[in-house]
Task: structure prediction
Amino acid sequence: MPLKVDPDIFSHEHEVFRRTVRHFFETEADPHVEQWDEAHAIPRSFWLKAGEAGILGIGVPEEYGGPGGDFLDRVVMTQEMGYSIAGASIGPAFQRDQMCEQLMDFGTEQQKRTWLPKMVKGECLLAFTVTEPDSGSDLASIRTSAVRDGDDYVINGAKTYISGIADADLFMVACKTDPAAGSRGISIFLVERDTPGLGIGRVLKKMGCHASNNGELHFENLRVPAANLFGPLNGGFKVLAKSLNRDRLMWGIIAHGAATRAFDLTVEFVKNRKAFGQTIFDFQNTQFKLADLKADLDVGQAYIDRCLRTYLRTGEVDMGEATVAKLWLPEMEGRVLDQCVQLHGGAGYMHEYPVSRLFTAGRLHRIFAGTAEIMRLQIGRAL
Ligand SMILES: Cc1cc2nc3c(=O)[nH]c(=O)nc-3n(C[C@H](O)[C@H](O)[C@H](O)COP(=O)(O)OP(=O)(O)OC[C@H]3O[C@@H](n4cnc5c(N)ncnc54)[C@H](O)[C@@H]3O)c2cc1C
Result:
């Protein structure tokens, strides 16, 4: 049973779009994901097809070559990507597409006209680079520097764990432009892949999400024109903060979608698998476990719906709600996935069963885009 959809939130048009998106993932992603996992890469042809299908750059208006659409269209796409079998592998690579929104919000007219038409077609892929070897949760402590020199900025430093380094064409790089000013001294620059001084380092081997490659970057006296400054000088933290709320909610939605898929796969599995002369489903233990998981999923869905209703009322994702969503939904996903693997028995540990892939991918959701501890910290501080 796919995701439950509240008709008071999503319109008929959203549901028509949902069918398009679901069909796209079922036909263009799910059958290929095993191969992409092995190659640690998603072929460019996939992104071009996604562009053609109108599921990249949702919200980017036609004047920049985009498919249009509203926030709920993006939610639909995110829900369906999370629920798809491939979502577990391609999630971090796919979510880079959210950066179209940042470009719309903070890009100069020139930057929008240059990059958005290519991004929405899948011809230009982005990587968002904040994390460094010595700085992750503590964003303000990044050390990559950008120093003004005439009409240019000169960038030096290193980034790590960056999603999509193998195929990114454009990097959004968070740098310190005023090292003494902490979070108020961060600026973001757009750096093209072939810029001299940009070194693409190792692709790192990971626990899961294999198709979304991750790795290291180095900047050595890399020069970018001052026109590549993205957002205000020393205002990079504001740029990050604006996207943070949407990003947190979207990762909560992905976690819920993945947990729902694992649940559905598990119900199907236990109804077919037999032991001691009956199906695994027939054991009361199994039904009790599944009942607990269903309760978790339903409560999670109700919370997502609440966040969406707030958005519909105010036009903004509420920061407090998004932070709770990013804390609770991935932790709920962790509980659900662990039980789903258990109910699969040995099959749950085998990569060829999607539940295994969902399990390793899902572990990321408590770490990435703000760890669970940072969510607790922020919820606690606001009390
Ligand atoms: C698959 C993957 C994809 C990624 N993609 C990208 C990307 O595209 N771009 C990018 O910039 N980054 C990316 N990251 C990096 C990711 O955002 C960071 O790993 C994450 O923010 C955590 O930072 P860290 O790894 O440095 O952990 P740390 O900040 O070192 O944290 C280590 C532990 O300490 C805890 N901790 C830290 N501070 C506190 C505190 N104040 N109170 C209590 N506990 C605390 C954390 O919660 C965590 O449990 C990716 C990471 C992964 C694994």
About this structure: The radius of gyration is 21 Å. Residues 92, 128-131, 136-137, 161-163, 206, 209, 214, 364, 367-368, 371, 373-374, 377 surround flavin-adenine dinucleotide (CB under 6 Å).
